[in-house]
Amino acid sequence: MKLLRVLLFVLAIALVVVFTPLAAAPQAMAFTARHLVYGSRGDDVYELQSRLRLLGYYWGRVDGLFGWKTYWAVRTFQYNFGMKVDGVVGPKTKRMLVKATPNWHWRRSGGSRSASNHALPSRVQGLSASDIRLMQHVVYGEARGEPFEGQVAVAAVILNRLHSPKFPHSIPAIIYQPGAFDAVSDGQINLPPDETSLQAVLDAIHGWDPTHGALYYFNPAKATSRWIWSRPQIARIGSHIFTL
Amino acid sequence: MLHRTTWIAIPVLAAVVFGAATGWWGYDQYRQRQALALQAENQYEASFHELVAHVNALETEIGKAIITSDPTAWDNRLRDMWRLSYAAQGDVARLPYGLLPMHNVQQFLSDVAQEANDWLDQGVRPTERAVNKSLQTLYARAHTVSARLAALTDVMAPDRLRWLAVQQALADGKSDNQMVDGFRRLDGEAGTFVESRVRANVQPVAADSFAREPEVDPMTAARRLASFAGVAGPAADWQVQALGQGRQGRTWLVVGQTSGQKRIVGYVTRHGGHVIAFTLSGGQGAAKFDFADAEDRAVAWLRSRGFGPVAVMDGMQYGNVGYYVCSPTVHGDPVVDRQLSVKVSLADLRVIGFAQAGDVGKPVLPLPPRTLTDEQIRRRLNPVFRVEMMRDVIVKDAKGRYQPAVAVYGTYDGETYRMYIDARTGRELETDRLTDRTV
């Protein structure tokens, strides 16, 4: 009997030890020490957005992406609470936000998890997410076997055409211009692309142009057109020659 | 014996030849049909994506027209609205919607073209109440169409739906095809309805930027790159290739392996040996550092490379990499037509990519003085545009001269816009839409 009491006591202690942290879990889900700025993403941003939304400062999607709406909400919050208005969420802003939202609860105000680290913002350097995805398909269809800079180069050619008055003025029109890209003509544009091709597109969008302004490229092993061979050549990257 | 074998062999051989010929012909016919089908598919795909882009751009232009108060910018917006609505009508006509009721969408596009044309003829101003009200109605309709098209794009991409399947569904009178249903819904909502803009002024580093500086040899170029990127080298197996005359002038392309088996690829100008861009393979491993820490690192790295004080103009995180677009500052004001892009690994805070753009050699100073205060500029803006932030900047005007300007960040209907206003004349130089709620 005594042994049974001891066992029950040990069991009770074990239950308390096991379940106490679980009960406290929502409180533990507070901001980490990260500084949050425009462009940040992750669970901290998710928490920031949902707390600001609870206070009525934020009206956008709670998606874990620190975009313009979050930025304006942070600035308004900082202004109203007498803090330095800079849109940067440091320790002081976090403390004030936590103090202002004592009833905030991770699950109640949230729902699904925040965006993955691979979600795209609605616009990147003036290009829409759908334009970027379309470019990703072309890069994968045209250059998936090429070195990384060869993939960036294909994306850069599309962007160079966007800046050139000789070509249409939108990404879809450039990509689907008849005969412009083999991947469109032979249907390889419809292949499901990989992550590397998207990284190549993002590099090109952020200014990396390994082609130095090239508007065309061709594979010397396959190209028979005299015209393309007559173009001034800039560089050979992988199996493609890039020309003006 | 031979006679009998021959008599058996001849029909068998004939059957084999006939079968092979028929098979080859059939396969050839199949290939031709597939090629035609793919061509038709691509045409439909092109028209659809262009329709998405044009309607998205139309929504942007209407939004810009609502918030503008500058007469010149207003006329430009109207012309763009007219052009885009006309282009979108052409896209609709090229889609296989003969059997679909697209009348409301066409009506909307026609309304936009008609209104824009009338306003141009009548010379009305954007701040007139009736005009602004009509614009807001058009904007709401444009957003409905744009959002629905974006939703259709989302349906199409992952499921890889085909346009020919739409035609087949229409021909069979079925209505369970997602695209057919989607377009019917789209048209219904239009009764009650993505051209991207990138800053055209930011050009690559001009070919003649460093023309007066002495030429560097390949070895010097490789050394400059290694030092600039902060890697050991150059090793004996690094390759230096002379590139042809691109827009950035004659350049050395340097490719090499660094310690840790990282690959470096860089571009160094032949005149002066300036690194225009480089990339270092890396960024692998889990992100251990903040995006904000990486931003500080990017700014400090640029300063250490002699670019002076810079301002971060844009940034985004993708995976375990942070991208930062900075502009050098003159007396504290960023020169927005010069861009320094830095890519930082969040795994180890290492700078793994760099690119510069803009006319780096051209002097910014002397600048004409600012004559309008922020408050005077704010008063000139359209009152429907909610100003969130103003920042002094330096921009290039249409004639390529640097001018003092104010970047006005603000919102209209939940969308964020950035307007560059000339700080001397108050004229609107350029407006960008920075968000897109349809995505």
Automatic annotation (TrEMBL), chain A:
Single GO MF descriptor: hydrolase activity
Domain Cell wall hydrolase SleB: 145-242
Signal peptide: 1-30
Gene Ontology BP terms: cell wall organization; spore germination; sporulation resulting in formation of a cellular spore
SUPFAM superfamilies in UniProt: PGBD-like
Peptidoglycan binding-like domain sequence ranges: 41-97
Top-rank lineage group of the source organism: Bacteria
Keyword tags: Cell wall biogenesis/degradation, Germination, Hydrolase, Signal, Sporulation
Family to which the UniProt record says this protein belongs: Belongs to the SleB family.
Protein name as annotated: Spore cortex-lytic enzyme
Organism annotation: Alicyclobacillus cellulosilyticus
Automatic annotation (TrEMBL), chain B:
Organism domain of life: Bacteria
Swiss-Prot/TrEMBL keywords: Membrane, Transmembrane, Transmembrane helix
Signal peptide: none
Membrane-crossing residue ranges in chain numbering: 7-27
Ranges where the Sporulation protein YpeB N-terminal domain occurs: 32-164
Record-annotated Sporulation protein YpeB PepSY1 and PepSY2 domain positions: 212-355
A Gene Ontology biological process term: spore germination
Protein's UniProt name: Germination protein YpeB
